[in-house]
Amino acid sequence: MRGYFGIGSEGISKPMNLGAVLRTAHAFNASFAFSVNAHHRAREVNLADTAKSASHMPLYEWDTLDDIRLPKGCVIVGVELTEEAIDLPSFRHPLKAAYILGPEKGSLSPEAQALCTHIIKIPMRFCVNLSVAAALVMYDRTLSMGGFRPRPVSAGGPTDPLPPKKEWQSVRFRQ
Questions:
Q1: What pLDDT score does 46 carry?
Q2: How many structural domains is the chain composed of?
Q3: Cβ atoms 3, 96 nearer than 8 A
Q4: What is the pLDDT of residues 133-155, one digit of tens each?
Q5: What CATH number is attached to the domain comprising 122?
């Protein structure tokens, strides 16, 4: 998979959610994670992040939206249930993206939404846990960015072997 992504939240308040987002981001090979205006106790984050992800990828902790600093060309993608939001299964993920989710008991602020190049939503009847939503977005990005065989028409998995990866595809960069 080419490109990179980061993921984070505005106003996250529960350390276990932040820990779960960090651990899942690390598992999906995120390039970085972040929080904006977080309200959590850092020690408790480690209870959910047993992989100690901040030791393996950068974690940016910004106080305000104005403090956000992203690499050139990286676009912000908001994850929010709005009428105008693009359904996640129909969304083409940018090559370079930072996904931002709202707080556990609220929505992305209008100021955060204004920073977003795109706003996407997970098609469901109501909101799920913040860390679950983050995992769904990262999983969808992984699927849609390619490198997997197409799904078969009938139930089950592909039966043909995956072609060998080119050398440049098998190199994984670690922070």
A1: 66
A2: 1
A3: yes
A4: 999 999 999 999 877 888 788 88
A5: 3.40.1280.10
Question: In the numeric block, which tokens belong to residue 145?
Answer: 């960015």
Residue 88 lies in a domain: yes
The Cα angle at residue 114 between residues 127 and 10, in degrees rounded to 5? 50
Of residues 99, 97, 101, the one with CA closest to residue 130: 101
- Report which residue type is found at 107: S
pLDDT attached to residue 126: 84
Question: Does a structural domain hold residue 168?
Answer: no
Q: How far apart are CA 7 and CA 21, in angstroms?
A: 8
The per-residue pLDDT for range 43-92, each reduced to its tens digit, is: 567 667 777 787 889 999 999 999 999 999 999 999 999 999 999 999 99
Number of neighbouring beta carbons within 10 Å of residue 16: 15
Report how far Cα 164 is from the mean position of its chain's Cα atoms.
28
Does residue 31 belong to any structural domain of this protein? yes
30: containing domain: 4-146
* Residue at 98 is within a domain: yes
Around 122, how many Cα atoms within 13 Å sit in the side-chain half-sphere? 20
